[in-house]
# Entry
Amino acid sequence: MVLEVRGFKPVVPESCFLAPTACIIGDVQLGLNCSVWFNAVVRGDVNSIRVGNQVNIQDGAVIHATFEKHATSIGDRVSIGHNAIVHGCTIHDDVLIGMGAIVMDGCIVESNCIIAAGAVVTQHSKLESGWIYAGVPAKAVKRIDTSAFSGEIERISRNYVMYSSWFSKKDSQ
# Structure
């Protein structure tokens, strides 16, 4: 569903994949080659949501903002895991947000970060580049370049561009 609200109609380039049960609402702009998966909601009814290129918003994820306070901005090559919540925050390029993670209002997540599954990034936190963050509340636990997860941000982003191509109109004919 792509729905206009308060005079704002979502901007969705042709290169994007929207699953039939995805909801894109209001003041939302998606970049090129994005994918919004089954039962994911990107709801720009109370503030703007800007999404960069090659972003995947996986099944059940919710992207929202805060009325008159916090817009949501998501950079390029960001993967937002199944059932994650990204709310009124800034996510820079090349970030992986794990399944069920929550990123709250006023947070800034610098480039090249991994937020572990189930982590909660509390309001107004600033996550520094190059770290894996885990826990409740989320804390830096390991440098990415010294972990087994090195390269995962790029791999997952690239894979989701491929997965979305499986659903393209030309492939389904």
The mean pLDDT is 94. DSSP finds two helices and 19 strands in the chain. The CA atoms of residues 33 and 162 lie 10 Å apart.
